[in-house]
Amino acid sequence: LTYSYTSSTMAAPAIRTRITSLFGCKYPLILPGMSWISDPTLVSAVSNAGGVGILATGPLSADETRNAIRTIRSNTDKPFGIGTTLLMPGAESNAKVAIEEQVPIINISLGKGDWIAERVHEYNGKILATVTNAKHAQSAIDSGADALMLTGHEAAAHGGDVTSLVLIPCISKRFPDVPIVAAGGFADGRTLSAAIALGADAVAMGSRFAATKESSLAHQMKEIIANPELSGGSTESDTIYGKNFDGIPARVLKSAESWRLNKKPASLPLVIYRAFNAAQKMNIPLYKVIPGLITQFDKMYMVAQFGAATESLMKATVDGNYDEGVQFIGQSQGLIEDIPAVDDLVQRIILEAIETSSQTFETFSDNRMT
Predict the structure, then answer these.
(1) Is 323 exposed, middle or buried (0-12, 13-18, 19+ CB in 10 A)?
(2) What are phi and psi of 200, to 5 degrees?
(3) Tens digit of each residue's pLDDT (9 = 90 or more) over 53-77
(4) How far apart are CA 313 and CA 224, in angstroms?
């Protein structure tokens, strides 16, 4: 971890890692693509602050994705990306739009993205692949990924079985030449410093960036997440992890509703009915959903479960309805105590990381001299 002052202002110095070099950003901080949260406003704010914002395209049509990309470009000349979950309906169309628009970074997950990587590399774009284990990491690298986003068990939404504390050093040791973005458990400068020490080159801070002024997350949910009180607050212990809510193991904010929905999976007829309703709300034609249910039932049933969960997610994330909705959140919410502006947050994180890293170095240096 190296840094140098680039101006006479009090701004935190630029940090050079393999990720900042690869993506051309100032700081090793990534906003992951979070549906209904990582929109053009928040993406632009993070990129302008020196990190990299990634647009969530899951809820967007191809036209909406194109418009969002162009809005981001009108707001910033800094690097940014789009996220595409390849298992989901509409993902291929959104990826093609991003390629046509020559988006600098495409973050792929839940699918093989070799065809995307081939086309993205033609214009010198970069592929960031989200994975949760070594097997998936190897597959992503073989498919052309330039960097890996490792999602640990602590993460909001669909984290893996292994904690970031173990996952990062294991994958960085197995694939030493591949830059790594660590996701899951990172929300301040201390955790950024720890991630670098473990072998990462940057961190993704979804929960932390969601609770900022520029975030479109409902303000009611921001206030709940940013309340660290042990009695009635949202601590690191106030999450639930399970697969019954949306068909994929996921971490959500603890509430009576999230407990209820995680007790058992919804029935097949209810899942399909709610999935079709969700597809209509998201402007996904049913002809894109029905064939998959027939020919790839297992995969599409999982997609249908995820689609069926959309209504609950939107109630919390968009409407701010804590009692009836479900909110994806990571265990790092225990570190969130305020709702700052993105630029102020980024500066605070980087300065704290520098101080923490210096203190760690001094600790080991002092012991070596005795």
Answers:
(1) exposed
(2) -85, 165
(3) 999 999 999 999 999 999 999 999 9
(4) 15
